[in-house]
Amino acid sequence: MRRTATDSIAPDEGDGLPGASGRPPGAKATGPGDRSGPGRPAPGARSRILRRREALAGLAFVAPMLVLFAVFRFGPTLGAAFLSVTDYRLSGEWTFIGAGNYTRLLGDDLFWESLGVTAVYTVLYVPMTVALALGTAVLLHRTLWMRGFFRGLFFLPYVTSIVLAAVIWKWIYEVQDGLLNASLGVLGVGPVDFLGSESLVLPSIAAASAWKGFGYSMLILLAGLQNIPREVTEAATIDGASGWQRFRWVTLPLLRPVLFFVLVIEAILGFQVFDAMYVMTAGGPVRASYSLVYFLYDSGFKFFDFGYASAVGLVLFLVVLVFSLVQRRLIGRDTD
Questions:
Q1: Three-state DSSP class for residue 288
Q2: Residue 169: helix, strand or coil by DSSP?
Q3: Which of 88, 188, 192, 233 could cross-link to 306 by cystine, CB 3.0-4.6 Å?
Q4: What is the pTM of this model?
C-alpha cells in the first residue's frame, strides 16, 4: 500500500501548521529538557521548594539544642536582668527598686577596686596567652616530626581542671618549698613571695592561667596557619623576604580574622577570672587579686544579696560587650 508524503511527517514536525504539534496556536514552544506540565511547578520553583525543605529539615535537627540554648542561656540572662532591679532575698521575697542596685554600684568603692583588678589582670593575661599560643602554633606549623604528639602535649593543660592547675601553680610559687623559688635559689636569688606581693600576684596568676588556657587558642591559630596558601609565602620567599618579613607582612595579615577571634575569646575569659584567684590567693593580699566575679560571688553567695549580685553580672556583661566592640573596631574591621 502506497504512503503519501504527508503520512511520513511526524506529529511534532508540522511545519507551521496550526495544531500539528499538538499545541494550540500561539502556545510557547518548549525545549526538549522542559518537563513542566499541568500540575508541575517550574524548575525555579522546584529548587526553591527543595531549599525550603532542606532548611526546615536542618532546623528540625538543631531545634532541640536551640531550645536548650534558649532555656539555659537566655533564660538566666533575663532572670538576672529582672533580679537586678529588685531587692531579692534568700527567703524568696523581693521588692522592685528600679535602678537602686546600679546607683549603689556607682558609689561602691569595692566594686571599682574589683573592676580595676579585673582590667589589670585582663591586660596581663590576654597578651601573654595569645603570644604563647601564636608562638607555639608557628613552631608546630613548621615542625613535621611528631607534630601530632606535641600538639596533644601542649593542649593537655587546657583539659586539666582549673582547680588542679591552680593547686599545682600554688605549690610552684611557694616561698619555702616551691619549685620556682628552689630554682631561683640555685642562681643565688633570694626567695620571692609571688602570691603574697601586691605587685606580683596578678602577673603570677596571669602566667598560671596562660599556661592553663593557651592550648585552645594554639589549635585555632594553627588551623589558621595551615589554611594560608603556600603559594603566597613561596612568592614572598622568591621576592627575597626574610622569615620575619614573611611573618609580619604575609602571615599576620592573612591570620587577622583568626587572631581577632582568639583575642575576643581570651578577653572574655580574662574578665571572667575567678577560680584561679579563689584557689591560689582567696582574693588577697589586701584584695590585690579580688576580681569582679569574686565580688559578684561574695555579694550573691556570701551575703545573699542576689539583686545586687545580678546587677554586678549585667555590668560585667556590658563591660565585656564594649571591650569586644572596641577590639572589633581596632583589629577586626578588615576581617570581613
A1: coil
A2: helix
A3: 88
A4: 0.78
Yes or no: say if 134 and 192 are a contact pair by the CB < 8 Å rule: no
Over the chain (336 residues), the average pLDDT of each successive run of 10 is 44 44 48 51 75 88 88 86 89 88 94 95 95 93 82 90 93 91 87 92 96 94 90 86 86 90 93 94 92 94 92 93 85 58
CB contact burial 95-128 (16+ within 10 A = b; e otherwise): eebeebbbeebeeeeebeebbebbbbbbebbbeb
Q: Which three cell numbers stand for residue 289?
A: 587579686
Q: Which residues have C-beta within 8 Å of that of residue 27, sequence separation ≥ 6? A: none
Q: What is residue 249's DSSP assignment?
A: I
Query: In this structure, is the dihedral angle defined by the CA atoms of residues 305, 306, 309 and 311, taken in order, positive or negative?
Result: negative
Separation between Cα atoms, residue 311 and residue 84, nearest integer Å: 5
Q: Which of helix, strand or coil describes residue 296? A: helix
